[in-house]
Design goal:
CATH topology: Triger factor/SurA peptide-binding fold
Structural class: alpha+beta
Number of strands: 4
Strand order of the largest sheet: 2-1-3-4
Helix content: 55-70%
Number of domains: 1
Number of helices: 6
Oligomer: single chain
Distance between the termini: 49 Å
Radius of gyration: 18 Å
Largest sheet: 4 strands, mixed
CATH architecture: Orthogonal Bundle
Order of helices and strands: HEEHHHHHEE
Length: about 180
């Protein structure tokens, strides 16, 4: 019972942390939804030790390579917000407990991963899977291989349209590397 309460508290904390806190500088807006500096910093903080584990240097934030890396990671956050917004429009909901279950399965343990990036990755994966099922439900084909190819094409078109139609506005100095961004 205590373990379940702890897992729910962790999920709520991660859920709120992924959506930014009050007073935090906003670096981008995706369809009106803000992405905060702290959300971006959490993703950067996730990849620093990853690079070290792989024996690769992580670029300094003040360097051109550091800004490019930061902007690529901002692009990842933009994509996650786009998927969440699309899921809401389609009536798809992923609950924090589903995300925690996915984390437990992928970690192979009872204890949920406390890394907000990992939580966001699991949430995004669940959203993508649910959107895929909804977008491809009516796709038909004569063979399994053809069905898979047609479903993948349908989802690819959906994501391309989603990204084309979503308004992304970045603050000066930030750009997720997309031609669809604008600055205020």
């Amino acid at each position: 019972m205590v373990g379940a309460a702890l897992a729910i508290a962790l999920a709520v904390g991660l859920f709120l942390g992924l959506r930014g806190g009050g007073g935090d500088k906003t670096v981008a807006h995706v369809g009106g939804e803000p992405i905060s500096q702290s959300q971006l910093e959490a993703v950067v903080a996730h990849f620093r030790p990853e690079a070290a584990r792989e024996g690769k240097p992580f670029p300094a934030e003040s360097s051109d390579a550091g800004r490019r890396t930061r902007n690529r990671l901002l692009g990842l956050l933009v994509y996650r917000v786009e998927l969440r917004q699309a899921a809401r429009r389609l009536g798809i909901r992923v609950r924090p407990v589903q995300v925690l279950k996915r984390l437990q399965v992928s970690a192979g343990s009872e204890e949920a991963n406390r890394d907000s990036f990992e939580y966001g990755s699991a949430e995004t994966q669940l959203l993508f899977e649910a959107i895929y099922r909804k977008v491809t439900v009516d796709v038909k084909a004569p063979s399994r291989a053809e069905l898979s190819a047609r479903r993948n094409t349908a989802m690819s078109r959906f994501v391309t349209r989603l990204q084309r139609e979503t308004t992304v506005r970045c603050e000066p100095g930030y750009a997720p590397g997309s031609q669809r961004t604008s600055t205020p």
